């Protein structure tokens, strides 16, 4: 009787395991917050762009506001936008469109540009604002340069809204979004960010912890979701300008101006880190400008939609990847450098063609200038993209119009103002294992950014935990009561 019970338990276990794994494979879900159908998000972005372009064409000459850029046309056409700042939260597109930021929360006005104390920040400073537990819409009383002492650690549900002021964030560590959600960063300059750390930093009103050494990223996104970065100008940082790693997803990076940097954007921590397969990022309406070398972006795993950006300079390549990411490039303009050895837009990093030939890298409606060429691979225009390609990216010839306001609004769009750049452009990671832990390399510490105490730990999925528990119980039961049957089965 007991032998029959054991056999039934084994049958139940493996049948359940097969069912769950089959469902997971069908949906391709590796993160709890990734979109189950990324192609639907791609179609929605295309429709939003095409609708905005159509409205601009229909009433051209009657309105000086409409640009065809669906994000800008959503809020900039309202002459009273300053009285209704939080409408911005309804204007995002793509995978990060659900980022609420501080919507519904009170306004917090930054009146003090100092950053003297990372454990007990002064009220009125940006550091004091971003660690609060409540949703906040953060605005600035006047123009200011905020020189950070160490990393600026955010709490969830925050908007930095730099409209109406010239806001510059620089110094040590810069912006860190770790284990949080729903953040909007809008209309700020971020530059000259340098490594720092080995100190205590507060992350909420009730918790501070010891931080290791940061990499010097402009904006570091670590195991976070629902993030929207819009109309920022980023340059001259020690490591990446924007890095998203360790299972981050639901991200949109739009209308920003990138310049004067080597390794611009890293999406995915390490080829071996499987949860990054659920990373989904929209990169739209950005200008990748002067002084850039590579990684616009460099992707590991995940689904990356690169749409209607202007790539006016690179020295090595524009888009790179490893570990089989999906790259969907639509309606961009790629202008190759004069170097005859750097005409290719794409680069499969440290991978033989036999391995990457089935990776889904697609070019659709891209404008290739000065000998630039994009090497597609995988399913390309076949079944995977049939639905997406039914909505033509009409905007391919309107890149100038769609990216004309990329960067910070209301002043220099890029970081070409009179700034003293201490960090300059670097060519390699500087991490010593405490910050984002070698995020630019392949041998970095996965968990180098975790606080010494009190930090949320990376959790196993409920499915994995349940089946591991059942397996342990079953093995213990058989070992205790039916060691002979266990040896027979094994």
Automatic annotation (TrEMBL):
Its cofactor is Ca(2+). Residues 143-340 form the Pectate lyase domain. SMART domains: Amb_all. It catalyses: Eliminative cleavage of (1->4)-alpha-D-galacturonan to give oligosaccharides with 4-deoxy-alpha-D-galact-4-enuronosyl groups at their non-reducing ends. Residues 328-351 are annotated as: Disordered. Pfam families: Pectate_lyase_4. Its EC number is 4.2.2.2. Gene3D superfamilies: Single-stranded right-handed beta-helix, Pectin lyase-like (2.160.20.10). Binds 1 Ca(2+) ion. Required for its activity. This is Pectate lyase. It comes from Penstemon smallii.
């Amino acid at each position: 009787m007991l032998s029959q019970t054991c056999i039934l338990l084994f049958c139940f276990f493996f049948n359940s395991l097969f069912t769950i794994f089959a469902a997971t494979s069908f949906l391709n879900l590796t993160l709890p917050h990734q979109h189950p159908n990324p192609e639907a998000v791609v179609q929605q972005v295309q429709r939003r762009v095409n609708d905005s372009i159509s409205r601009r064409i229909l009433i051209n000459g009657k309105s000086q506001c409409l640009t065809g850029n669906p994000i800008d046309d959503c809020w900039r056409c309202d002459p009273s936008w300053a009285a209704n700042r939080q409408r911005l939260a309804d204007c995002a597109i793509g995978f990060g469109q659900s980022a609420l930021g501080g919507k519904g929360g009170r306004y917090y006005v930054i009146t003090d540009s100092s950053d003297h104390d990372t454990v007990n920040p002064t009220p009125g400073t940006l550091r004091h604002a971003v660690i609060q537990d409540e949703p906040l819409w953060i605005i600035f009383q006047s123009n200011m340069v905020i020189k950070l002492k160490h990393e600026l650690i955010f709490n969830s549900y925050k908007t930095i809204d730099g409209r109406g002021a010239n806001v510059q964030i620089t110094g040590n560590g810069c912006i860190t979004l770790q284990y949080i959600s729903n953040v909007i960063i809008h209309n700020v300059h971020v530059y000259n960010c340098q490594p720092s750390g080995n100190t205590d930093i507060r992350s909420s009103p009730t918790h501070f912890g010891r931080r290791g050494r940061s990499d010097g990223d402009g904006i570091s996104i670590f195991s976070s979701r629902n993030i929207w970065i819009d109309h920022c100008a980023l340059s001259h940082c020690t490591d990446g300008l924007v890095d998203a790693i360790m299972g981050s997803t639901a991200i949109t990076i739009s209308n920003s101006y990138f310049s004067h940097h080597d390794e611009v954007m890293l999406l995915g921590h390490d080829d071996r880190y499987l949860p990054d397969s659920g990373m989904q990022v929209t990169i739209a309406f950005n200008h990748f400008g002067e002084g850039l070398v590579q990684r616009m972006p460099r992707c590991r795993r995940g689904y990356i939609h690169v749409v209607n950006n202007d790539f006016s300079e690179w020295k090595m390549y524009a888009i790179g990847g490893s570990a089989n990411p999906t790259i969907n490039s639509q309606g961009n303009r790629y202008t190759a450098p004069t170097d005859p050895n750097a005409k290719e837009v794409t680069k499969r990093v440290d991978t033989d063609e036999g391995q990457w030939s089935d990776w889904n890298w697609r070019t659709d409606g891209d404008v290739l200038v000065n000998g630039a060429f994009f090497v597609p691979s995988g399913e390309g225009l076949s079944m995977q993209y049939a639905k997406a390609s039914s909505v033509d990216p009409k905007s391919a010839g309107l890149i100038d119009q769609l990216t004309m306001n990329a960067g910070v609004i209301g002043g220099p769009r890029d970081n070409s103002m009179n700034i003293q750049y201490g960090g300059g452009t670097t060519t390699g990671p500087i991490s010593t294992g405490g910050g984002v832990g070698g995020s630019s390399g392949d041998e970095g510490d996965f968990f180098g950014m975790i606080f010494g105490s009190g930090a949320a730990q990376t959790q196993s999925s409920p499915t994995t935990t349940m089946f591991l528990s059942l397996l342990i119980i079953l093995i213990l039961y058989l070992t205790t009561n039916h060691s002979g049957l266990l040896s027979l089965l094994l």
